[in-house]
Amino acid sequence: MQTIRNRLIIILVVCFSFIVGLTCVDYYHIFSLQKKLVLIEQLDDFKGDILELRRYEKNYFLTGNAIHFGQMDFYLSKTENSFLNLEKEMKDILNTSEYNQCAVALKVYHKILKHTEEAMDGGDSDVENLRATGAVLTAFSEKLINKKHIRIARVLRQMLIMPLAFSAGFIFLVIFVMHMTREDVLKPLSLLQIAAENASKGVFDPIGHVIRKKNEVSQCIAAFNKMVVEIDAGQEQLLQSRKLASIGTFTSGIAHELNNPINNISLIVDSLIEDGDTLLLAERMKLYNDLMDQAERSTEIVKNLLEFSRTDQGHFENISLEEMIEKTQRLLKNELSIKRVKFHVGVQENLPKVRIDKSRLQQALVNLLLNGIQAMPDGGILTLTIEADPESGGIRMDVRDTGMGIQKEQLDSIFDPFFTTKKEGEGTGLGLSVTYNIIQSHNGRISVKSTLGKGTCFSIFLPVKA
Ligand SMILES: Nc1ncnc2c1ncn2[C@@H]1O[C@H](COP(=O)(O)OP(=O)(O)OP(=O)(O)O)[C@@H](O)[C@H]1O
Ligand SMILES: [Mg+2]
Q1: Which of 366, 378, 420 to probe ligand 1 with, by most ligand atoms within 8 A of CB?
Q2: In a mutational test of the pocket of ligand 1, which residue from 240, 365, 367, 371 has the highest number of ligand atoms less than 8 Å from its CB?
Q3: Residue with more model confidence, 93 or 429
Q4: What sign for the dihedral angle of Cα 108, 113, 117, 120?
Q5: What residue's CA is closest to ligand 1, atom 5?
Q6: pLDDT category of residue 407 using cuts at 50, 70 and 90
Q7: Mean of the per-residue pLDDT values of the chain
Q8: pLDDT, tens digit, for every residue of 436-456?
Q9: How confident is residue 381, by pLDDT bands cut at 50, 70 and 90?
Q10: Does domain 316-466 have CATH number 3.30.565.10?
């Protein structure tokens, strides 16, 4: 697997090789430059000896002074020694044939010099030939030095170019590493950050990033996606258990609600059994109709309850809110009367239809309304208002109570799961956290305002298109 760790190791090895390579190349250049400088000094000496030889040659033939001749002999043997010692280097700078030509010229010069010595003792001397051969030697030494200078200049150029080439390579490497880091680490990490922030707000969307390479980040994203799917599934279960908890809270109300029609039915049936024969047809018909009404009332209550506890999930539709509010009101009717809470509903007319998950939004409303009822143990007024919100262009729902209110320092925590101020067994602390998630999944938001001792108002803002 091409893990980020492996890639970092490769990059470090490449960087290290770059540095070692650059150091070696530099060292090699400096070393060879040093050798070349030493050699050029020797070649300079060689040339200097030839020039001295030529100077004494000129002086000797001008003055005929024997001292000058002695100097010529001295510098010729010096030149011959250097020529032999630097054979390899000279052949390397020029070539073997040029070296051999110079060797021949040296021999000829030597020979003519010997003849000249003999001429001083009465022999012949070939001055012109000596000068011509001397000129060959001078030209050879100059050529040597010129070529050596060219080579030194080339090494210096390489010494300048190599660091530039290495720097360019290094810049490419850095650009590649930055690109790789951005594509394979930073981009997916920022997606992960956004997804994690969304998850903290209750939106459990998996990251849709296409994982091209298998590395630590892609594994992290895969693990995150798996976690999000599982939490999302867990959310459904949580929602369902919340529903059951809410039903538990208003069961007494529902029992009471069902009890009434059942009592009425048994009373009507009793009177039919006892007085059925004596009653007029019209009176009997009225009792039958009453029976029917009571049975329908019971059916309606059970239907509401069943609808509320339904488990179908994520079903968004464009509906008007009035119907849902009416049903919610009916569910809580008896709870309200038991707790002596007056319930006012105000729905603005001609509200735009909103795209909502009916069952979930009802759950959110029930949670807020139950909290409101529970905040008014000695009775009070619970108000639900629904109106268009000109600011957001959506819909605003306010659930307001005249209860005890929420302490300032608790306001930040009330949406946290399991935060409750209620006695054990009375509250799980999940109501508001579930409500928050439901509103988030509608792309809406919820806020709260509360005054201690006066009451609390929860506001839900829903966009028209969720
Ligand atoms: N309308 C309100 N008035 C005063 N306090 C409130 C109101 N709504 C919520 N709270 C405070 O917020 C806390 C958390 O509410 P939440 O609905 O999440 O849990 P709960 O009501 O305690 O328990 P559960 O809803 O699970 O029965 C409550 O315990 C209460 O202290
Ligand atoms: Mg609650």
Answers
A1: 420
A2: 371
A3: 93
A4: positive
A5: 406
A6: very high
A7: 85
A8: 888 988 889 999 999 999 999
A9: very high
A10: yes
Atom of ligand 1 nearest to the CA of 249: 27
- Extract the tokens encoding 198: 């969304």
What is the rounded distance in angstroms from the CA atom of residue 407 to the CA atom of residue 290? 50
Dist. CA 360–CA 347, nearest whole Å:
20
- Beta-strand relationship, 341-347 and 316-319: unpaired
Find the mean pLDDT for residues 288-316: 75
Q: Is 403 in the pocket of ligand 1 (CB under 6 A)?
A: yes
- pLDDT category of residue 173 using cuts at 50, 70 and 90: confident
Q: Which residues pair with 346 in a beta bridge?
A: 385
Ligand nearest to the CA of 407: 1
Q: How many CA atoms lie within 13 A of 236 on its CB side?
A: 11
CA distances from 147 to 43, 88, 151 (A): 11, 15, 6
Three-state DSSP at 395 gives strand
Residue 281 burial by Cβ neighbours in a 10 Å radius (0-12, 13-18, 19+): exposed
125 lines ligand 1 (CB under 6 A): no
Enumerate residues with CB within 5 Å of ligand 2 (an ion): 371, 431
Q: Where are the domains of the chain?
A: 4-177, 316-466
Atom of ligand 1 nearest to the CA of 417: 18
Atom of ligand 1 nearest to the CA of 434: 18
Asked if residue 77 has pLDDT above 60, the reply is: yes
**Does the domain at residues 4-177 carry the CATH identifier 1.20.58?**
no
